Amino acid sequence: MKRNGLKIIRVTVSSAVFFAVTLLWVCYGPEVARYMAWATKIQIFPMAMALSVTMGAFWVLAAWLFGRIYCSSVCPLGTWLDIIGALGRKSRKGSLRDYHYSPPLNRWRYGSLIVILACFIGEISVVPALVDPYSIYGQAVVNLLKPCWGEACNLISALGESTGLWDYRHVRIITAGVFYTTLSGMLLLAVSIPAWFYGRTYCNSICPIGTVLGMCSRQSLWHIDIDTDLCTNCRKCEHVCKASCINLNDHVVDGSRCVTCFNCIASCPDNAIFYRINRKQLSLPMMQRVTPPGVNTAASCASPAGATASEPYKTNKPEEK
Question: What is the CA radius of gyration of the chain?
Answer without folding.
Answer: 28
